[in-house]
Amino acid sequence: MRIVLVGPPGAGKGTQAVRLAKELKIPHISTGDLFRANISRKTELGKLAKSYMDAGNLVPDEVTIAMAKDRMEQEDAVNGFLLDGFPRNVAQAEALDELLKTEKIKLDAVLDLEVPEEEVVKRIAGRRLCRNKAEHVFHVTYTPPKAEGVCDVCGGELYQRDDDSEDTVRTRLEVYHTQTEPIIDYYKAQGLVATISALGAVDEVTKRALDALKRDGDEEK
Ligand code: AP5
Ligand code: MG
């Protein structure tokens, strides 16, 4: 399957992507995680991306599209992928369509995670990530690690993202509404959007997402 995950910052895209990717046996491709890996390796791309990310703005399309394309063309993504955080504006959605057309493949679904703004703010404020692996994500009250500041999975140090400060989150939410939300209409016109509530326990949301994807698949038959 080829799936795009969309939703505001803190909706739980990363949390759900890890589970859905495992269940559907496709790689999880997060442009945010790819940028953060570049930042920690101190690459030129990382330096450029950091200046935009710290302000809560989008990294320019040209470098983002090139990076996403490069990742989607890797061996493990031949039979499908789950995109998390890409595309993030209509220009990126159009670039993805072009790429898919060249490869003669199609998206199966766009899963839209709906969460009220006050919940998103709470989720972001309590989020802690593992220095060793981007996919080990915790929340200080909702899904706390057994020992404070230590990753349950690998023992790595937990940290707070630089762009999770109150001011930056406000900008990220505004960028989501003005630049990213229009892609939902773009994909609705292609009949691809399945909207689900991302409220409730992590497992419940995963179940809702899998049911929605299955429903979509059944309708196409
Ligand atoms: P990115 O890393 O994609 O961040 P984002 O979209 O702002 O989303 P987040 O990662 O903050 O939230 P999430 O939805 O993944 O939530 P999570 O699962 O962690 O992008 C960061 C920046 O990179 C952008 O601002 C931009 O600068 C740049 N960038 C990236 N892609 C780009 C692109 N295509 N073009 C241009 N620039 C780009 O969950 C949040 C918290 O909630 C966690 O603590 C989690 O444990 C908890 N949680 C999750 N689910 C639940 C639940 N059901 N109940 C309770 N708690 C929960
Ligand atoms: Mg994320």
Lay out the secondary structure:
Elements: E1 2-6, H1 13-24, E2 28-30, H2 31-40, H3 44-53, H4 61-72, E3 81-84, H5 90-103, E4 109-114, H6 117-125, E5 127-130, E6 137-139, E7 158-159, H7 166-180, H8 182-188, E8 193-197, H9 202-220
Parallel strand pairs: 1-3, 1-4, 2-3, 4-8
Antiparallel strand pairs: 5-6, 5-7
Describe it:
The protein has helices at 13-24, 31-40, 44-53, 61-72, 90-103, 117-125, 166-180, 182-188, 202-220; strands spanning 2-6, 28-30, 81-84, 109-114, 127-130, 137-139, 158-159, 193-197. The protein has a domain at 2-27 and 74-115 and 179-220: P-loop containing nucleotide triphosphate hydrolases (Rossmann fold, 3-Layer(aba) Sandwich), CATH 3.40.50. It has nine helices and eight strands. Strands 2-3-1-4-8 form a five-stranded parallel sheet, sandwiched between helices. Strands 6-5-7 form a three-stranded antiparallel sheet. The mean pLDDT is 95. The protein has 221 residues and is an alpha/beta fold. Bound molecules: BIS(adenosine)-5'-pentaphosphate (AP5) and magnesium ion. Magnesium ion is lined by residues 13-14, 30, 32. Its main location: cytoplasm.
